[in-house]
Amino acid sequence: MPFKTNVSKYVKPSSLEDACEILKSDEKACAIAGGTAIFLFSVRGFFSQIDTFVDLEALDLHGIRKLPNSYEIGATTKLQDVLESELIRYDCLKSALLSIPREVRNMGTVGGEVYTAAPNFDLPVALMALNAMLKVTNGKNERTIKMDEFYSDVFSPNIERGFVIKAVQLPINELKTVYKRVSNTAHGFSLASLCVSLALEELVIKDITVAIGGSIDTPPTRLFDVEQELRGSQIDSSLLEKGAKKVKKSDFLKVSSDYTSSESYKRHLFAYLFKEALKEVVTKR
Ligand SMILES: Cc1cc2nc3c(=O)[nH]c(=O)nc-3n(C[C@H](O)[C@H](O)[C@H](O)COP(=O)(O)OP(=O)(O)OC[C@H]3O[C@@H](n4cnc5c(N)ncnc54)[C@H](O)[C@@H]3O)c2cc1C
């Protein structure tokens, strides 16, 4: 299937400053990394206004490194390279990446997966649960944005024209993490996905982060009310039930009935995934 765009110009700047300048000054220009999401959504007409692709490949934004308090993943790092990284071994990251077909992981980049702001992409959910920070730049200035503040709406990243994602930073810690998802077909996009990261003391929850994605009405989001309710609680079977009920009714879980399933079934799925994730995460060493 061909790309459905009206693109007639393709530029490959060698400096971030030049790339950002083009993206800022030309509203018909758009960044391209692996091109897989552009391919996917051009079919829906998302890129019909674009006439110039600005290739980010030559900008030296790839690679994974360890900083004093975080791991830094360059924006154009391929998803497969993150999966194979010896450095970053968070279980949830691995599970989320394994949900994405291998062919796509070989082409798709971390920056493209995050920027797209698709509700049913897997990696952003895991990154949110890991409290990731995004380093963004306009080629001159840099700032960091918390992953859970990066999306203003579905397909709407919270970033000004002329800025690109430079890197994703993950805090280094000993959190236990689990990523779970359900899809309608073996290789389908997620219908419901949920990631839990947990700091436990004995069986008491010192800290917990719960993020969700899938066939939801918002971009991937954290369930802050669920997290708040569970912090400080002892994990036992009654807590699983209590947590699952809270997930089902969370103010942050916005779902509606569509061709994939009914609203109530989606709520049920998230509650189920929460219980499964929590049961699994407490058994991790
Ligand atoms: C057949 C298929 C199946 C897929 N299945 C899954 C799946 O199961 N789970 C899942 O999570 N994902 C899935 N994906 C999505 C895939 O993982 C993403 O398309 C990919 O990660 C996007 O990266 P990219 O480099 O190709 O982005 P591109 O397509 O190059 O870019 C996507 C968007 O991000 C912008 N962009 C790219 N890099 C940057 C940057 N550094 N800064 C600012 N803007 C940037 C572009 O302008 C564009 O708007 C699938 C894709 C395909 C084609």
Give the structure's gist in a few sentences.
This protein has helices spanning 16-25, 36-42, 79-83, 91-98, 102-107, 110-115, 123-129, 224-230, 237-248, 263-282; strands spanning 9-11, 29-32, 52-55, 64-66, 70-74, 133-137, 142-146, 151-153, 156-157, 164-171, 176-183, 190-201, 204-214, 221-222. The chain is of the alpha+beta class. Strand 4 and strand 5 form a beta hairpin.
How many helices? The count is 10
The CATH top-level class label of the largest domain: Alpha Beta
Mean pLDDT, nearest integer? Answer: 95
- Measured by DSSP, the beta-strand proportion falls in 25-35%
**C-alpha Rg, in Å?**
19 Å
CATH architecture of the largest domain: 2-Layer Sandwich
Keywords: FAD, Flavoprotein, Oxidoreductase
GO molecular function, one term: FAD binding
Domain FAD-binding PCMH-type: 3-175
Protein name: FAD-binding PCMH-type domain-containing protein
Task: Label this structure with key terms.
Uridine Diphospho-n-acetylenolpyruvylglucosamine Reductase, domain 2, Uridine Diphospho-n-acetylenolpyruvylglucosamine Reductase, domain 3, five-stranded antiparallel sheet, four-stranded antiparallel sheet, 14 strands, globular, binds flavin-adenine dinucleotide, FAD, FAD binding, oxidoreductase, FAD-bd_PCMH_sub2
Commentary on this structure:
GO terms for molecular function: FAD binding; oxidoreductase activity. Residues 3-175 form the FAD-binding PCMH-type domain. Keywords: FAD, Flavoprotein, Oxidoreductase. The protein is globular. Helices cover 31% and strands 26% of the residues. The model has no long low-confidence stretch (mean pLDDT 95). With 285 residues, the chain is α+β, with helices and mostly antiparallel strands. The chain has a five-stranded antiparallel β-sheet with strand order 4-5-10-6-7. Helix 4 (91-98) packs antiparallel against helix 7, helix 8 runs antiparallel to helix 9 (237-248) and helix 9 (237-248) runs antiparallel to helix 10 (263-282). It has three domains: 9-58, Uridine Diphospho-n-acetylenolpyruvylglucosamine Reductase, domain 2 (2-Layer Sandwich), CATH 3.30.43; 60-171, Uridine Diphospho-n-acetylenolpyruvylglucosamine Reductase, domain 3; 176-282, CO dehydrogenase flavoprotein, C-terminal domain (Enolase-like, domain 1), CATH 3.30.390. It is built from ten helices and 14 strands. Bound molecules: flavin-adenine dinucleotide. Residues 30-40, 56, 75, 79, 99-101, 104, 107-109, 111-113, 115-116, 121-123, 164-165, 189 line the site of flavin-adenine dinucleotide (FAD).
